[in-house]
Amino acid sequence: MTREFLPAAPLLQEAVFGPVVDSRFGRHLGVNPLPAGVKVCGFNCNFCDLDWTFELIDDETLGRHSWRRPEEIAGEFRRGLERTRDHEPSLDRAVIAGNGEPTLHPEFYELCRLLVEARDEEWPGLELLILSNSAALRRPQVVPGLLLLDRRVMRLDAGTEGLFLGMNSPTFDLRLEEVLRDLEILGDFEIQTMFTRGRRDNTADEAVEAWIEAVARVRPSRVRLHTVTRPPADGKVTPVDREKLEQIARRLEERAGIAAVVEADTEEGTPGGRRS
User: Fold this and answer.
1) CA neighbor of 157 nearest in space, from 115, 196, 118
2) Predicted pLDDT of residue 4
3) How far apart are the first and last CA of the chain?
4) Lower CB count within 10 Å: N or C terminus of the chain?
5) How high is the pLDDT of residue 21?
6) 92 lies in a domain?
């Protein structure tokens, strides 16, 4: 399929950005818990619009980064909410994402607690949503922190170990079976899935069947299907047409009884909506 990609995604310098608008999450304020201008992620996805991940993820490498303190991020978030409320009072939600995987923040639970506290004081009822790649659920603070938030949108792109390694390429020792077990424990969450063709294709019948079985096993409340819209790290990864995505969504609903929605292309372009 021939299509024109949206502009490449830049690495964010700021901890809080926006409001921005996209067709996935509406008008929202973004929160980037990752270090300024640095990608930190436990996956090396070939479809990533932030280019490749080059370092292994462990406590030693994470400790070498300059992480913003939870208090600093929450303070920026509070000021962003105040600024938005005073000048542009329409806001659908806040989205925690950024330059990689937000759950890798070394003080993730405290970060979530302070973000919820700031939200409750400055904009009660505003939804706090996180985008995560599901790879760090075994880190001690992650699940308790996630459960403080209103919505958890977790990644699951494959139903077999081979495709999981091919598409997501973990930068540490991680198997798909572990991800599925962790998601089963997490409970209330949504799934987002990237479908691609080209060098990595997870749209073949057998791949879709295995993915449906995996989704049915972890029982998300909803599944969000999307495809590449910006230049991917691997230039030989190509998008999937909407008709195919709609077919996969219907197949999931018929087989597993789980609601599925096909994400429209990002319109204005949303740093928070693109990552993880």
Assistant:
1) 196
2) 62
3) 24
4) N
5) 87
6) yes
Which CATH number characterizes residue 116's domain? 3.20.20.70
Residue 71: CB atoms within 10 A of its CB come to 12
Query: DSSP secondary-structure letter at 159?
Result: S
* Count of the separate structural domains present in the chain: 1
Quote the mean pLDDT of the chain. Answer: 89
With the CA atoms of 164, 167, 173 and 179 taken in that order, what torsion angle do they form, in degrees rounded to the nearest 10? -40
Full residue range of the structural domain in which residue 174 is found: 16-274
Beta carbons within 10 angstroms of residue 7's beta carbon: 9
- Confidence (pLDDT) at 273: 38
Q: How many Cα atoms sit within 13 Å of 188 on the Cβ side? A: 8
Taking residues 41-59, report their average pLDDT. Answer: 84
Q: Is residue 172 part of a domain?
A: yes
Average pLDDT over residues 203-226: 97
- On whether residue 5 sits in a domain, the answer given is no
| pLDDT for residue 207 is more than 70 | yes
Distance from chain centroid for Cα 104: 13
pLDDT, residue 90, reads: 85
User: Is position 187 within any domain?
Assistant: yes
Q: Is the separation of the CB atoms in 64 and 130 below 8 Å?
A: no
- pLDDT(220) > 80: yes
Q: What is the CA radius of gyration of the chain?
A: 18
CB 261 within 8 A of CB 21: no
What letter would DSSP give residue 37? T
Q: How far apart are CA 104 and CA 108, in angstroms?
A: 7
The answer on pLDDT for 137 being more than 60 is yes
Question: Any alpha helices (H) in the chain, and if so which ranges?
Answer: 59-63, 70-87, 108-122, 142-146, 161-168, 176-186, 205-218, 242-256, 271-274
Question: Given strand 16-22, what is the order of strands in its sheet?
Answer: 16-22, 26-31, 93-96, 127-132, 151-155, 190-194, 223-226, 260-262
